[in-house]
Amino acid sequence: MNVCSFVGRFSSGFLIAPLGLWNLIVASSGCCAIIMFCMTAAHNLAGVMSIGATFGLFSGICEHRYTLSVNPKADAFVDIALVAPMMASLASDRSEIGIRMGVGFTLAGRWLTLKRPRLYSQDIVYSKVNPAAVALVSRCWHDSEENAPDPGSLDPILRPLKRGEVGVTWLSTGEHEILPETDFVLSDRLFQLGEFCKASINDVASAVVTNVNMRIRVAHAVSGEELPGWHTLDEFAPRPADVGEYLVYNDWVGQTFDETLVEAAGHLIRVPELSTRLVVGDKGRHILPPPQGNLSGILSYIMGQNRPSEGDTVVAVRHTVYAIAWFGISQKLDPREAEKRERPKKFWYGEDVAKLTVIRGVAERQLHVGERVFFRKFDSARPHTRHGRDQDPGGIFVCSAFKIIESETIIDLLWQDGTRDQRKATDVIPYLNPDDLDCWPGNHVLYKGEDGNKRVAVVQSVDAKERIAKVLFLDTQKIELVPLLDIDPHGGTTGEITSELGVQLGDFVFICDDNGFTDSRVPVLGEVEPWVREVPLTEGEPLGWRKELTELGAEVTSGHDSRLGNVRLPRPDDNSLNWIGEVTALNLDGTVEVTYPNTKKDTFNLKQLNKLQDGVTQLQEDMWNNGSEMGGSDEDMEDVWEDIPDTEGVPNGDWEWYDDQEPPNGVMDDNEVVEDGADAEMGSAASDVAEEDMSSTVVDETAQSLPILKDKEPVSSDDVSPSAGPSSEPDAWTRFEILPEAPHDHAFYDSAVEPRSKAFFSRLNREYRALQANLPDTIIVRTYEDRSDLLRSLIIGPDNTPYADCPFVVDWVLDAEFPQKPPRAHFHSWTRSNGRVNPNLYEEGKICLSILGTWQGDKSESWTPRSSSLLQVLVSIQGLVLVKEPWFCEPAYEKLRGTEEGKVNSRLYSEKAYVLSRGFVLRAFELSLEDITPAIRDFYIRRGNLKKVIDDARALIQSSSAPEGDGEDAHRADGEDAHRSDGRDAHRADGEEPAVPRLTGGGIIALTATLNKLQALLDRSTATP
Predict the structure, then answer these.
(1) What is the DSSP string of 266-318?
(2) pLDDT tens-digit readout, 719-752
(3) Which domain does 454 fall in, by range?
(4) Which of 79, 220, 680, 910 is the 20 to 30 A CA-CA neighbour of 391?
(5) What PANTHER family does its record include (predicted)?
(6) 848 tagged catalytic
């Protein structure tokens, strides 16, 4: 164990105490403190080091509580955070107050930090005021928004949390409460196999949990008498099968989606219930259900029999009926034999339960504080209680159930750099928001090189700070260093997931001879039965299968049936289930270790595995994918679009009306009537459906009513870089233009052409006028005479964002229901399947934005036929999506803005976005989209923006390649390095902090490869003929 000493000298005196991980309480009335520490050889120090530092403290008498912890993953400096009630105003917006001291020596990779508590969901905590009061943290301020309660709930317990608050469930009473997290002390932290963690929030490096071990302390579930000492899990009998666990029967695997024995007034009563809400030891009036509606039940209640009382106590809980959804069959069976195996029945009870076998992974074998357990063998010397009377049907019942009152979890960790260690779970923090590029040793990844070829590799180790990975290429069996930006840990899956790249720790898999997939992809099997998705309740009453389950439970318990079977557990000598198992290790050669239900292990190639997708995951994805469509009202759209709405950055006034000029070619008049009052027909250039030239539909007498702003002055020659060279092209950067034909490479070119009404064309005319009048200089739009339902936009990334000067192309289609519903968009993602360039811009082309109805955000931001417009949509993409810190575009992360965790993740994401978007410039030239290529050449070649992109990127590489300043923490990536070692300030000339202040080594490698191609492109474009 690490041994250190801590000396705190205040004006009131000295205090000396030993430390490992400890709390120090000091009463101080002075304004100065000197903190000194030393470490022994246990920290591999060649001597005793001491540090002195002076801190300005507030005057006044108060109590300060500090928690000192040793972090072996950090570098050579000391961060000390002072957290006290009197400093709350300073700490309100920070998770800790840090004072960095430059010191002239190295602490062998160790550092010390004093910081306030940081709790996470599922943490086990106890009250500082009453240590016997144990609670489970059920909600945290930093939890994902998708798990947040309804903000409109009338229950005050479900109100949104403030920063520093946690929602807890008291394990003794089950009551919920919201309290400051500083009211609690962390007792234990729960991790599962395959979950990720960090040593601290500021760390870039992370680890994956490879094993979990626990020891527990217990007390009798009814009497509360404690049993001294710690106990390991193998001393206790396995739990019965519970909701969500896997069960096997006749080579089928399924998932469970109970009878409760209650002592009331000395009698034992069986109570059916749909879930495991009751546990042994529960007491109170809430346990017994109301009397049944028959005369016998009512009379029994009136006479005082089975009437609820405060002394009602749960003394046993047992499942009597299981509802099981069967969704997978052994892949080792011969196909003809598999066809004969009918899907097993839905409900299981009575003696049939004994035909089922439960299979568990590492996570399901864990126990947690508050759970009830039984020792494998009854020992009368241990605490136990007796219940009931001899004349009761069941006689005397001896309760030997214990409840877990304390736990200690030890986890085995595999760090990204390949090192392994073992730690207490409370010494690390959950890594809740892994970066898209994060990977760990043993992971299969997809490498995408400069030539565009994709190769499968296995990660050997990762330098998380420099974002470089050492990988084994399976095709050549050679180990090489590659930047993380060139690999995809997820395999680039889009749409419905039918296969995944590799497997992860904790996955359940079917064993097979050959899954039929190549390139290390693994099929995903398992489809839940339709009845699982039935509506659960109506007016508080269960429906469908839940109603059946409730009725069966009542029938079984009322019959006092003693022939209740027990679900079987796999025996160590039984190999009949060796067709399914849990992934427990990922080997560096690409093979996978699988642990069978009988705990035996075997090693397989990925081609021998199929991944089991459980029902819970499928239901979660259903809820996530079935978001409600957001659209406008159904009111008539004649004359509802009165004005262009005020939007930030979009002018709504200062119109300049036409005098004697014609409107732009192709703009329709509002009063144009479709011939014979019928719907207008549109078609593609190849279909000959649209024979009218839209330009002929302009009515001269209304031309003077078309408002339009004057075009900007053309760019002067002084604004064009000399390196751009001569150009024979005219100024092609026209913000709005109607072209004769839609390009064949338009994403919606092959979409069905539907009749359009007069109202559609009237609205379209107004949209065109708004676009021509108000488009910013950095957005252009192209529309088409032969396909008035199609548009294409080119948006240039705003300055001082990771997207600065880069092109973003979006294709649009206006369905027949427009403007009742928003336009549909397709984003041209040019990342070469290297992930999203922005959280709201999907690789498959989806744009996640409230106004497009693709994100269920604030209703005030959704599309409304009356006030929304194409112009508003385009400006929203440029101003709300292509932002300086795109990581926070993810709704769940917005609340983390300003936190240390948010800074770390945001900086890494911005680097990725910056490098990928430089590649967009290259792809814009390579793809040569038919209608916007002239504008692309105009912007990048004639106006010199290609040279600007290259020069800016090279300047960033140069500054990033310089050594970081002295005392800079090698494990921090929060973007706070405001000064470079060469003395140049990291801020821009305008005083703003740059969107991407520094690149990692991996970022430099990936960006350099793109810049070399852009330079070659520039050289060819500017060469003298």
Answers:
(1) TEEEEEE-SSS---TT-BSTTSSPPPPSSHHHHHHHHTTTT---TT-EEEEEE
(2) 333 333 333 445 678 999 999 999 999 999 999 8
(3) 437-489
(4) 220
(5) (E3-INDEPENDENT) E2 UBIQUITIN-CONJUGATING ENZYME
(6) yes
